[in-house]
Structure formats: structure tokens, C-alpha cells
């Protein structure tokens, strides 16, 4: 079992948290630029985890410096997003297509378009990372590791700071859950999956906020429950698991909706060309079933989060 650092000062613990996040980012940049499998996802996750640390544990760091670094990291995250999202959509076509026995030719048409878009997104990533903004971000990360800009809470006990900030992250997640009626979302899933020209939707926006809150909670809990920065124990690890389940299930729902919509857009184009749209409709129906299953998982995940929060007094 990893030794607890609950009696350490917050600054001592979060100096190591910062160093580990920066190490991961720097380690994952070369594979992402080389477009190795899953490398963009791993880098994007590392960037998000550091941004979460700066946001959730904000009182530990000097406010202006923290906000500046978060903004710089957000720029990199913005460039990583399209490449990663296109990877997910390409993988979804393959996995859902095989499971639904969608003909290979139909899957290939969808994959080719996504692959071309991914290549363009990756070129944008390469260009950004070769530029001045990436050099400035790297320099800032090095400065933070060498001399983090601490605020008053850095001198407080790490356990006290971690508990207080995780409670806030839990409240944020529960508030976001209160704003989403998953039953209504299930009732509207078929409609949403068939809307090939979607506009802003309040219900999907609320689900997106809940997904982000779940991700924020799991990342924040991992900062203080895993070696070498373990401050809190099993209850906080339960929050990590609960937040991850919320994030994953609602992410699966979103991805399934996007796949269903894209399959129907291509089906319409194929039909206009005089071709057979049925293979694409089959894939769209399979994606809809995935969306419904994901919402079942989301309902269980939210219930589990409420249960953990109640048992741990969050």
C-alpha cells in the first residue's frame, strides 16, 4: 500500500503532482506528433489532468499565474481535440460496423472520409507544436516545475485542502446531475440520432456539462489517492470510480449519436447517387442501440455517484 502523505503540506504534495503531470505531457508529445496509436488521446488526457489540478486545487496556486497556464494548456487541448475526436469516430465505425455486420464497402466509405479529415487535423497539430505557442508553453511548464507559484493554501495540511476541494467537485457533479433528466434524454435519443442538421440543444448541453463534471471529479480524486501523492484513501478512490463511470457512459452516448448522424448523412448522399442506403441505415440503427445502452449505464453511474457522495458525507 502506498504511504499516505496526509500530514504533508499541500505545497509539498502538489509540487509532486505538478511534476508528474508535466512529465507525462512532455513524454507523450513525441508519440502524438508521430501519430502513434492512441498517442493523441494520451496526450490530451495528460493536458486535461493538469488543467483540472489547476482548477480544482486553485487556492494552492497563485491565481493569475494559474489562469495563464490553464489558458495555454487549453490552446493545446483545442488543437488536440479534432484529431482525437476523428480517431474515436473512425474506431466507432469499425467496431459498431463489425458488430452490426455492416458491409465492408459501407464501412470503408465512412472510414476514408474520417481518415482524410484526421490527416488534416494532425497537420494542424504538427504546425501548432512547431510554433512559438508550443515553445512558450514548454518554457512555462519548466518554470512551474522548478518554482511553482504558490498561494496561501500551499501552507495548509494537504489532507484538509484535498478534502475541501473534492467536496466542491462532488457538489458540482451532483448539481450537474440535477440539471439532466436522463429519462427525457432517453425519450429523445432516437430524435437526436436522426437529426442530421443538429442545432444547439439544451438537454445535450446539460449532459455535456455533467460529463465534464464527472471527468473533473475523477481527475481531481486521482491527484490525491495514488502514489506518490496519496493524501486520501478509499472513500476518495470511490469518487474517482464514480466520476469515471459518469464521464465514460455519457461520452459513449455522445459518440453513438455522432456515429448515427454521420451514417445517415452518408446514407442520404448514397441514395441521391442512386446507391443502396440500407447498409448505412443498419449502422445508424446499431449506433442508436449503443446510445440507449450508454444511457442505462449513465443512470446507474449517477445513482452510484449519489450513493458514494452520501456515504462519504460529500
Automatic annotation (TrEMBL):
Q: Which domain of life is it from?
A: Bacteria
Native source organism of the sequence: Isoptericola dokdonensis DS-3
Pfam families cross-referenced by the UniProt entry: CHAD
Indicate the segments forming the CHAD domain, all copies. Answer: 7-307
- InterPro entries tied to this protein: CHAD_dom (IPR007899), CHAD_dom_sf (IPR038186)
> What name is this protein filed under?
CHAD domain protein
**PANTHER family recorded for this chain?**
CHAD DOMAIN-CONTAINING PROTEIN, SLR1444 PROTEIN
Amino acid at each position: 500500500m502506498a504511504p499516505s502523505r496526509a500530514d504533508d503540506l499541500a505545497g509539498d504534495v502538489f509540487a509532486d503532482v505538478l511534476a508528474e503531470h508535466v512529465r507525462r505531457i512532455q513524454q507523450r508529445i513525441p508519440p502524438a506528433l508521430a501519430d502513434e496509436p492512441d498517442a493523441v488521446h494520451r496526450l490530451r488526457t495528460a493536458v486535461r489532468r493538469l488543467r483540472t489540478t489547476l482548477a480544482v486545487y486553485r487556492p494552492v496556486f497563485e491565481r493569475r499565474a494559474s489562469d495563464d497556464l490553464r489558458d495555454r494548456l487549453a490552446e493545446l487541448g483545442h488543437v488536440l481535440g479534432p484529431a482525437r475526436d476523428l480517431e474515436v469516430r473512425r474506431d466507432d465505425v469499425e467496431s459498431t460496423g463489425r458488430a452490426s455486420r455492416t458491409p465492408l464497402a459501407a464501412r470503408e466509405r465512412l472510414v476514408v472520409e474520417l481518415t482524410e479529415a484526421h490527416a488534416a487535423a494532425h497537420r494542424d497539430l504538427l504546425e501548432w507544436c512547431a510554433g512559438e505557442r508550443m515553445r512558450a508553453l514548454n518554457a512555462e511548464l519548466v518554470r512551474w516545475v522548478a518554482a511553482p507559484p504558490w498561494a496561501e493554501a500551499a501552507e495548509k495540511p494537504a489532507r484538509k485542502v484535498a478534502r475541501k476541494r473534492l467536496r466542491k467537485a462532488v457538489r458540482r457533479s451532483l448539481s450537474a446531475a440535477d440539471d439532466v433528466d436522463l429519462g427525457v434524454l432517453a425519450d429523445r435519443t432516437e430524435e437526436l440520432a436522426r437529426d442530421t442538421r443538429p442545432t444547439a440543444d439544451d438537454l445535450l448541453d446539460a449532459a455535456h456539462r455533467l460529463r465534464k463534471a464527472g471527468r473533473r471529479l475523477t481527475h481531481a480524486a486521482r491527484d490525491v489517492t495514488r502514489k506518490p501523492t496519496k493524501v486520501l484513501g478509499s472513500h476518495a478512490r470511490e469518487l474517482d470510480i464514480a466520476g469515471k463511470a459518469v464521464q465514460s457512459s455519457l461520452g459513449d452516448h455522445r459518440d453513438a449519436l455522432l456515429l448515427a448522424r454521420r451514417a445517415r448523412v452518408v446514407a442520404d448522399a448514397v441514395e441521391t447517387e442512386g446507391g443502396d442506403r440500407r447498409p448505412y441505415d443498419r449502422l445508424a440503427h446499431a449506433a442508436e442501440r449503443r446510445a440507449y445502452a450508454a444511457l442505462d449505464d449513465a443512470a446507474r453511474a449517477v445513482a452510484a455517484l449519489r450513493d458514494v457522495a452520501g456515504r462519504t458525507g460529500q
